[in-house]
Amino acid sequence: xxxxxxxxxxxxxxxxxxxxxxxxxxxxxxxxxxxxxxxxxxxxxxxxxxxxxxxxxxxxxxxxxxxxxxxxxxxxxxxxxxxxxxxxxxxxxxxxxxxxxxxxxxxxxxxxxxxxxxxxxxxxxxxxxxxxxxxxxxxxxxxxxxxxxxxxxxxxxxxxxxxxxxxxxxxxxxxxxxxxxxxxxxxxxxxxxxxxxxxxxxxxxxxxxxxxxxxxxxxxxxxxxxxxxxxxxxxxxxxxxxxxxxxxxxxxxxxxxxxxxxxxxxxxxxxxxxxxxxxxxxxxxxxxxxxxxxxxxxxxxxxxxxxxxxxxxxxxxxxxxxxxxxxxxxxxxxxxxxxxxxxxxxxxxxxxxxxxxxxxxxxxxxxxxxxxxxxxxxxxxxxxxxxxxxxxxxxxxxxxxxxxxxxxxxxxxxxxxxxxxxxxxxxxxxxxxxxxxxxxxxxxxxxxxxxxxxxxxxxxx
Length: 461
Prior knowledge:
This protein is mainly alpha-helical.
């Protein structure tokens, strides 16, 4: 335990984590320091109750059906199309304690763990690829990551955000295991990483796109990357839990919709008319959405109205191709680079040849290539939202860390102090806009606090 504490410099990290946890607590409880459950926040607890009754859905004629649920209706039965893992966690808690685990509580815990695994993984990568850690830079980037999409998502803690945060946390936990110093010494590390990644995929199946990234990390960091038998054994051990999880997901889908690959998207009962039309027409994903999503995720400015209301996403990219490629929804999306300018350093990843070891070069190539692959899937979706930064922003922060760290190493000592001051000033901007953004979207009433009513709670029983 002491070596773990020293290896990850927890004396530096834990005070930061405490501050982050306090900010998250202030926001998720809306200043009351009392957790609550309301509207779409009850969905996973509702599904947990359904599971415990031995079912996967509820008839729309039943009094236990949520009348206006954002779900899927198939043969007059209401199902939820989100991954089942968080519901299983809620169900397990209820079995053990006979109490309800609020979604806001689970999202809050997952968010704190998310920051922890972000730190652990980046320490692992820095030590193994660069041989050292720039601790001030790591603290800075971790703080910026913490006030980004994770803060935004934990504040509301509806099922949309709960699935994102919980899934992202399992993913980062899997990456933390794969990148750990002893990961090549035992098959248990591969198995543990596989189980964690399976839980991530079973929470949000879209995270399956990260499989090449995890295998790429394992390949680059393996002590014997080109020994086929060694690598095949590790990968088979990693993929075994994933195969089991995908099989169970397929059975879960078949039991509900008669198809192992149908998650319920085709039977959505709530949404904008244009969204429902495109879903039925099979136009949910298309390469023709890429220019518009790219514009929002990487170019759209952040701005506020005169009343201070957050207006990111109000900016419109001109539609020059016709009505079909126009996005069906834009939810508070603005450029990740306007929100966190330090991430512009990611561009420097292309200069991978300047790094001192082949390991570091392979890592940068892997991250840039697979990062583009992962984002490509997101850009093909028919809408966008700021909350989806949760899926990929950590890659941008990790790449920026490597580029900035390498840049600082090559600067003369006389200039480093000035650069650190500049980095802090830019970070203050990012921290401010992150807090302001979340306040003005979810908590618009001064002083950034709005107590929400607890409704539909009777459906939890």
